[in-house]
Amino acid sequence: MSLTDELLGTVAELRRTVADLHGELTRNELVAWTAGNVSARVPGRELMVIKPSGVSYDELSADTMVVTDLYGRLRDGDLTPSSDTAAHAYVYRHLPDVGGIVHTHSTYATAWAARGEPIPCVLTMIADEFGGEIPVGPFALIGDDSIGRGIVETLRASRSPAVLMRNHGPFTVGRTAREAVKAAVLVEDVARTVHKAFELGAPTPLPAEDVDRLYARYQNVYGQR
User: Any catalytic annotation for residue 57?
Assistant: First the structure.
């Protein structure tokens, strides 16, 4: 399918953005070899831009990004889409406010996923960004939309933009792909810190009312407006 002139500019910009954001995954040491992926919804369209499958990060560019519909069918590009395309597509179909999705196998967050254990809310950063504990989603095999179903089911019951898919790794979402990458960076950071805290003893959970206040401040007041 050829993209219409109306879409060409938007898709070209998203291809550049998504390609550049994959560099953040390597810069923050969240991925190894060809694992992991970033995608972005095309605003107002039933389309997304996503990383191609099995392509080395140093070979990624705007031109190698592919466009699929929200059922994972290739609509523009020369390469096979990511093996996680069906999962991303399912999330976009069922969570309309999500504009970007990231999947990594970052070491500490994936270790929590391997244990099937949520990351408890014992840090103000966790309250700020995730609004409570970082939940665990169900185990699901790669290849169809089963992972996407688990992501949606888990995130609908949580304020967190991150879910630790059991025995697999973290998926993060955001209003934009950049927001989803930020969540991926922060989930690895807090996963590592909380792991270290448990090595020293039992960390103290934050009271629920403080979590609510911290989350509201960070989401609505923090930063430039």
Answer: no
- Burial pattern 146-165, b for ≥16 Cβ within 10 A else e, equals bbbbbbbebbeebbbbbbbb
Instruction: Read off the pLDDT band of 41 (50, 70, 90).
Output: very high
Q: Which one from 20, 128, 212, 218 is the annotated catalytic residue? A: 128
pLDDT at 3: 64
d(CA 149, CA 61): 30
pLDDT of residue 1: 52
pLDDT, mean over the chain: 96
Tell me, letter by letter, the H, E, C secondary structure of 102-128. EECCCHHHHHHHHHCCCECCCCHHHHH
Q: Tell me, yes or no, if 189 is annotated catalytic.
A: no
How far the first Cα of the chain sits from its last, in Å, is 40
